[in-house]
Design brief:
Blueprint lengths: L17 H8 L26 E5 L2 E5 L7 E5 L6 H4 L6 H7 L3 H13 L2 E3 L6 E3 L5 E3 L3 E3 L3 E8 L15 E5 L2 E7 L5 E4 L3 H11 L11 E4 L12 H4 L6 H17 L3 E4 L12 H14 L1 H4 L4 E3 L15 H8 L4 E5 L7 E3 L4 E7 L2 H9 L11 H4 L11
Helix pairs in contact: 1-3, 4-5
The structure holds zinc ion.
């Protein structure tokens, strides 16, 4: 069975492309909100561990001092073939700006690990009461470890990426989650050609990088389907003859992903801007996500804003958009702020956390010295892929 990407003409393709990525992307290109979360916070170092509370086989455990001060890095799909991605065509600028290569990702993850970060889940930070209240819970980490959430945005292998040196989709083979990828010669390869399978391999070798089995969060839209499967009825009802089978296949992959410790977040169905969208638009979009994406990846209480575009400034959430999203079961909300190593807010009924984009734009800022944030996690000079042009970003 082969999914026909070229022939699937849908309205979404008109807004796919580099613009989509800037989203998850970065405030450099599109300020998510006039009230930057960074205004209210210091660096993550101030939140290092405090009282020793118990012991474990690895030694003493230390309770992290402040659950709102947890760093969060996010990535888009990795460039598997820089030659095809950075080829100067219409999409190349977006890939340079909003993505890193496999080579860069592997070096970044190694250095993050070497600097004593440990992967945690947002759900290790809070519990939810029956009345919807959020209570922070103690995060006990091996001594010297610093908590880190990672997320992967838009793991859909969008149509516009076809032929540009990215995998086609995720599959399960011999019990492992791997990619199907067509190389430059058109030959189908199966293996670790994107961050999720690469992280699985890294974690096999470094199991202490994961705290109690936590791995990362996958931010999922719906308009181009999920995980490389064109599963959307709205977009593909007449185009994809294998729609029902694709849904089953995608669910198998999603189940395997969750079983291995990964979690899914809503990234909205249509990659909408929550700052600009009226609540009616947010409701209509969420209904599509719940109808088309939740049956495959499962219900989630995590919402990762496209474009980092938050529903409010840094004041406590209380507006109509929040009331709606909370009524739909969302408890943790993630915007974008790369100006500090960590920012968060616990508001009684929600947890909010800022994410840091790791991409061509932030690498360029780090290399040029205009931002120090990434230096907290790795040495930007040593991770750059030689295949990335001297301009670094687009
Ligand atoms: Zn996105």
């Amino acid at each position: 069975m082969k999914i026909s990407r070229r022939t699937a003409v849908i309205s979404a393709s008109t807004f796919a492309g580099a613009a989509i990525l800037s989203a998850c992307g970065s405030k450099d290109s599109e300020p998510a909100n006039d009230a930057s979360p960074s205004a209210s916070s210091g660096a993550s170092d101030s939140a290092s561990g405090s009282a020793s509370s118990s012991a474990s086989p690895q030694g003493p455990l230390v309770t992290w001092a402040d659950n709102t001060m947890v760093s969060h890095l996010f990535f888009h799909s990795l460039v598997a073939d820089p030659k095809r991605a950075f080829d100067g065509d219409d999409e190349a600028k977006g890939y340079l700006d909003y993505m890193v290569t496999i080579d860069e990702f592997k070096k970044i993850i190694q250095q993050v690990y070497d600097r004593n970060y440990i992967l945690i889940s947002p759900h290790q930070l809070y519990t939810t009461g029956p009345d919807g209240s959020i209570e922070l819970k103690p995060l006990e980490l091996p001594e010297g470890k610093k908590p880190l959430v990672i997320s992967f945005d838009d793991l859909s292998y969008y149509e516009y990426m076809d032929g540009d040196g990215f995998p086609d989709r995720l599959i399960v083979k011999d019990g492992k989650i791997v990619n199907e990828y067509r190389d430059a010669a058109g030959k189908k390869q199966v293996g670790a050609y994107d961050h999720l399978p690469i992280m699985e391999e890294f974690l096999d070798q470094h199991p202490d990088f994961s705290h109690d089995g936590a791995k990362g969060v996958i931010a999922m839209t719906g308009y181009n389907g999920v995980l490389g499967y064109r599963t959307s009825d709205i977009s593909y009802k007449d185009q994809n003859k294998n729609l029902d089978q694709d849904k089953k296949d995608a669910k198998k992959v999603a189940d395997a992903i969750k079983k291995n410790g990964w979690e899914f977040a809503s990234h909205s169905w249509g990659h909408i801007n929550f700052t600009k969208s009226p609540v009616d638009h947010i409701r209509a979009d969420n209904e599509k996500w719940q109808a088309e994406v939740a049956p495959i990846v499962g219900k989630t209480d995590l919402l990762i804003y496209p474009f980092g575009a938050d529903i409010a400034g840094i004041g406590d959430y209380e507006n109509e958009k929040f009331q709606y999203l909370k009524s739909q079961g969302f408890n943790a909300f993630f915007n974008v702020d790369a100006s500090v190593p960590a920012w968060g807010q616990a508001g009684g009924k929600y947890l909010r956390q800022a994410r840091i984009n790791v991409d061509g734009i932030s690498l360029k800022h780090a290399i040029e010295g205009t931002s120090q944030t990434l230096n907290e996690f790795f040495d930007p000079h040593t991770v750059l892929d030689p295949q990335r042009p001297k301009s670094i970003s687009g």
